[in-house]
Amino acid sequence: MPKHLIGVMGPGNGASPLVEETAYALGQHIARRGWVLLTGGRNVGVMDAASRGAQSAGGLTVGILPTADTTVLSPAVDIPILTDLGNARNNLNVLSSQVVVACGIGLGTVSEIALALKVGKPVIFMRVPAEAVAFFARLSVHSLTATDSVKTAIAWIDEQLRL
Amino acid sequence: MPKHLIGVMGPGNGASPLVEETAYALGQHIARRGWVLLTGGRNVGVMDAASRGAQSAGGLTVGILPTADTTVLSPAVDIPILTDLGNARNNLNVLSSQVVVACGIGLGTVSEIALALKVGKPVIFMRVPAEAVAFFARLSVHSLTATDSVKTAIAWIDEQLRL
Amino acid sequence: MPKHLIGVMGPGNGASPLVEETAYALGQHIARRGWVLLTGGRNVGVMDAASRGAQSAGGLTVGILPTADTTVLSPAVDIPILTDLGNARNNLNVLSSQVVVACGIGLGTVSEIALALKVGKPVIFMRVPAEAVAFFARLSVHSLTATDSVKTAIAWIDEQLRL
Amino acid sequence: MPKHLIGVMGPGNGASPLVEETAYALGQHIARRGWVLLTGGRNVGVMDAASRGAQSAGGLTVGILPTADTTVLSPAVDIPILTDLGNARNNLNVLSSQVVVACGIGLGTVSEIALALKVGKPVIFMRVPAEAVAFFARLSVHSLTATDSVKTAIAWIDEQLRL
After folding, report:
1. Does A1 score more than 90 pLDDT?
2. Each residue of C75-107: pLDDT tens digit?
3. Nearest chain B Cα to C82, which residue?
4. How far apart are CA B73 and CA B65, in angstroms?
5. In chain D, which residue's Cα lies nearest the Cα of A82?
6. Which InterPro entries did the record assign (chains A, B, C, D) (predicted)?
7. Which residue from A53, A3, C1 is spatially nearest to B61, judged by alpha carbons?
8. Which CATH class is domain D5-162?
9. Are residues B88 and A86, on separate chains, in Cβ contact within 8 Å?
10. In D55-163, at which residue ranges do the beta strands (DSSP E only) sit?
11. Using CA of residue C123, residue D12, residue D129, residue D150, what is the dihedral sign?
12. How far, in Å, CA of A160 to CA of C162, rounded?
C-alpha cells in the first residue's frame, strides 16, 4: 500500500510570514498523522516552510523541483524529484497529491488549483482571500472548502482519505 | 526569422456559442495578418473554432495536443504537436505563443493564464467576466487588457509584436 | 487534414560534416515533397542543417526546443515550439513525427530512436554505423531499414505515409 | 540532507526471470544500505521486482509512473509520483537518481541509459549483453562499468555516492 501524499502548494518568494507560519504548522500536523508531505521542493516560501514543519515532527518530505538543479532545493526535503520540466511540473505536484492544500496564493498556486479542480482532486483553501475562493467556486462543479484553522484542515484531509 | 505564433486559449467542451464565434473571428483575423494560430489542438470549443476560422482565411494552424491520439485532433489543425503530456502541455501552449488571447474561461484556461502571467507573457482577455479579469489583475504586476472587440484585440496583439 | 510531419533527428554539436550534408539534403527533399520538417530546433548540427536545407527549398520547418530560450533556436526554424522540458522533449519529437529519420547518432538520438521503436513509429537510419543499427534491430520486433542514399530514404518515407 | 536515491531501470513486460531475480536482490541490498530505491513504478518486470526486494528488506521505494493511473502501480511502491507524461517521464527517472543501475535491457531502458550518459550521471550495467554495453561505450566520453554481481554493484554505487 502506498503512503498518503498530501500536497501543500503556495507562493515561493511572495509568501507572507502568516502564510509561512500556517505552512509550517500544516507540515507538522501532516507528519504527526503519518502522512507524507509533498511540495514543489524549493528553498523558499510555502514549500520550504511546510517541509521544515514536517521534518521537525519527524515526517517524510517529497519535493518535486522544476529544475534538475539541487542548489534551489529546500534542505528539509528528504526525497527530491528532479524534473527539469519548468512550470509543467505543477501538474505533477497536483496529480501526485491525494489531497491539495492551497496555502496562500500566487500565480503558480493558481495554476495548481485550476489543474487540481479540473481532474476532481480535493482542494482546501487556507489563507486565500475570499474573492479568490469565490473565483474558483464559480468554475468548479464541486463546493469548495476554506479554513484558516490547521486543525480543521487536517480533519478535512482525514475525511477525504477515508472516502 | 520564425513566424509570429499567436495563442488562443479557452474552454473545450464548455464553450458558449458566443465564445466560439469570437474564437472563429479571432482565428480569421490572425490568419489575415499572416500570423500563425496556436491552440490546444482538440476538436472542441475554442481550439476548434479558432482553428477553423484561421483555416477559412487561408492561415496556418498549430495544435499542441495533450495526448498522442490524433482522433481528438481538430480537422482544422495543420501542424499537430503530439505531446502525451496531459495537462502539463498547457505550459507549452503558453511558452510557444508570443501573445496569449484568453477567449472565454474554464479551469484549463485559468492554468494557462496564470502560467503566462507568471513568465511575463502578454495576455489579453476576451469574453472573460470582469471579476475573473480582476482576480488576475490582483495577482499580476502588469496592468491587464480586456476587450470584446476582435479588431481591438488584433491591434493590441500587433502592438505587442512590435515591442 | 494535417500536413505530413517528417522528423529528422541526429547529433547537435557532435555532427560530422558528412552527416550535416546528408541532413541538409534530406531537408531539401522533404520540402520538395511538400512535407513539413520537424527537428529539435537548435542552431547546431543535424537540426540546423536539415532546417536550412528545407528552408532553401521553400519548405516549412518546425523546431521543438528543449528550452524556452530562443537564443539557441536555428534561424531556419519557422515554427518554434518552446517546451522548457529539457531532454523530456525528445519524446515529443518522436510522437509528433509520422516518420523518424535518424541521421548520424549521438546519445540524444539514441534516446529518440528507442522511444520511436517502442511506440512502433517507422524509423530509417542514415549515416549510422552498422553495429548501431544491429543493436536496435536486436531490441525491435520490426525489421529496420538503413540507407545512405537520400533518394532511397525519401522513397521509403513516401511508402510509410501511404500505409 | 536529502536521502540517496538509487535508480534501478530495466524491462517491464519483457524481463527474464534471471533479470527479475537480480532486480529483487538489488532492491534488497539498496534498502539494507539505507538508500531509497527509485524505479518507473509499474507492477511488472524490473520495476516491480526491485521494489518488492527493497520493501522486503524494510527499505523505502519511490515509483515515477508514466500515467496518472494507480491501477498499474506496483504494490511495493511507497511513494508514487504520478506524472501523466508518458515516456517523457523516463528523463525524470534518470535525473532524480544519483546513480542509475541498468538491470536487463529493453527499449525504454535504452532511452534511460542514453539520457543518463548524456548528462554525466553514473550508470552501471547488470545482465546487459556485452555488445549493448559496447554500443554505449562508443557513444560515451566516460568508461563504463558492467557486472553481474550485486555485491560489486553495491560497492560501486557506494563509491559513486562518496565522490
Report:
1. no
2. 999 999 999 999 999 999 999 999 999 999 999
3. B96
4. 7
5. D96
6. CHP00725, LDcluster4, LOG_family_nucleotidases
7. C1
8. alpha beta
9. no
10. 61-65, 79-82, 99-103, 123-126, 145-146
11. positive
12. 52
Give the Cα separation of B23 and D113 in Å (integer): 45
Q: Which residues contact B100 (CB under 8 A, 6 or more apart)?
A: B7, B9, B94, B112, B113, B116, B121, B122, B123, B124
Quote the cell numbers at residue A80: 527530491
Residue B56, Cβ neighbours under 10 Å: how many?
13
Packing angle, helices D17-32 and D150-162, rounded to 10: 40
Q: Model confidence over B10-52: pLDDT tens digits?
A: 999 999 999 999 999 999 999 999 999 999 999 999 999 999 9
Strand segments (E) across B10-161? 36-39, 61-65, 79-82, 99-103, 123-126, 145-146
Distance separating alpha carbons of residues B60 and B74, to the nearest angstrom: 13
Locate D122 and state its grid cell: 553514473
Q: Which positions in chain A touch D118 (Cβ < 8 Å)?
A: none
In 3-state terms, chain B is what percent helix, strand and coil (to 5)? 45, 20, 35
Residue B120 — left, alpha, or beta (φ > 0 → left; ψ -120 to 50 → alpha)?
Answer: left
User: Do B114 and A111 make contact, defined as CB atoms within 8 angstroms?
Assistant: yes
CB-CB under 8 Å, A73 with D79: no
What angle do the packed helices A17-32 and A45-56 form, to 10 degrees?
40
DSSP β-bridge partners for residue C8: C101
Q: Which chains touch B (3 or more CB pairs under 8 A)?
A: A, C, D
List pLDDT tens digits, range B104-115.
Answer: 999 999 999 999
Q: How many CB atoms lie within 10 A of CB A151?
A: 10
User: How far apart (Å, rounded) are the C-alpha atoms in residues D34 and D27?
Assistant: 11
Q: What is the pLDDT of residues D77-91, one digit of tens each?
A: 999 999 999 999 999
The answer to whether the Cβ–Cβ distance between B132 and A132 falls below 8 Å is: no
The Cα angle at residue C37 between residues C31 and C43, in degrees rounded to 5: 115
DSSP state of C87: G
Helix, strand, coil share (%) of chain C residues, nearest 5 = 45, 20, 35
Residue A46 makes CB contacts below 8 A (sequence gap 6+) with A8, A9, A10, A11, A12, A15, A19, A20, A23, A39, A103, A104
Grid coordinates of B21: 464565434
What does the radius of gyration of chain C's CA atoms come to, in whole angstroms?
14
Q: Are B65 and B83 in contact (CB under 8 A)?
A: yes
| pTM for the whole structure | 0.98
Q: Find the residue in B nearest to C76 (Cα).
A: B1
Q: How far apart, in whole angstroms, are the C-alpha atoms of residue C108 and residue C91?
A: 11
Task: Select from A87, A118, A132 the Cβ nearest to the Cβ of B118.
Answer: A87
Predicted complex ipTM exceeds 0.90: yes
**Cβ-defined contact of C82 to B92 (cutoff 8 Å):** yes
Interface of A with D (CB under 8 A): 1-3, 5, 36, 60, 62, 64, 68, 70, 73, 75, 77-85, 91-92, 95-96, 119
- Sign of the CA dihedral running C26, C30, C31, C37: negative
- All residues of chain D having their beta carbon less than 8 Å from the beta carbon of residue C107 are 114-115, 117-118, 139-140
The closest alpha carbon to A114, from B6, B84, B117, D93, belongs to B117
DSSP symbol at A41: -
